[in-house]
Design brief:
Elements: H1 2-10, H2 29-39, H3 43-57, H4 64-80, H5 84-97, H6 110-123
Helix pairs in contact: 2-3, 2-4, 3-4, 4-5, 5-6
């Protein structure tokens, strides 16, 4: 049950056009299959499918859009499995292929968008903006009660 809810949260609305940078449906059948597996919450199968697609597509420089899409959904699958560092690494790979990769908040969960934006910032050699990091915790001051009489 929890896995299905996580899948729904991570892939909120992915059945529609998924990414602003990918205006049409994926032209690679293996990437399309991996996206469907992510949408269904079958992250292990999606990782296997999308990793194979990414390896194959990386050999063809003309397939950068499909490769970026494979890496993006591979990152979402890793995030669904709870592997945030691996997800972020795949998001960085997606950004290497399409520098101005932009995700729609109508179609992707905020956590996915935040990690992609952090990956873009890292790929550009800058630190993520303050909205991507939690605010610093301030030390608590302990005030002793006033003494009476």
């Amino acid at each position: 049950m929890g896995r299905g809810i996580l899948a729904l949260a991570l892939t909120f609305g992915l059945s529609a056009v998924g990414v602003d940078a990918f205006p049409q449906a994926p032209s690679d059948p293996e990437v399309a299959k991996g996206i469907e597996q992510v949408e269904q919450g079958d992250y292990d199968a999606a990782i296997f499918t999308l990793d194979g697609a990414a390896r194959r597509l990386s050999a063809d420089p003309k397939k950068s859009r499909q490769l970026s899409e494979a890496y993006l959904y591979l990152g979402i699958a890793f995030l669904g499995k709870g592997h945030e560092a691996a997800a972020k690494a795949k998001f960085r790979e997606a950004v290497k292929q399409i520098k101005d990769l932009s995700l729609s908040p109508d179609k992707f969960a905020p956590r996915v968008i935040d990690l992609v934006e952090a990956a873009k910032a890292e790929a550009g050699g800058r630190r993520p903006g303050p909205s991507l990091r939690p605010p610093p915790r301030l030390p608590r001051r302990v005030v002793a009660p006033a003494r009476c009489c």
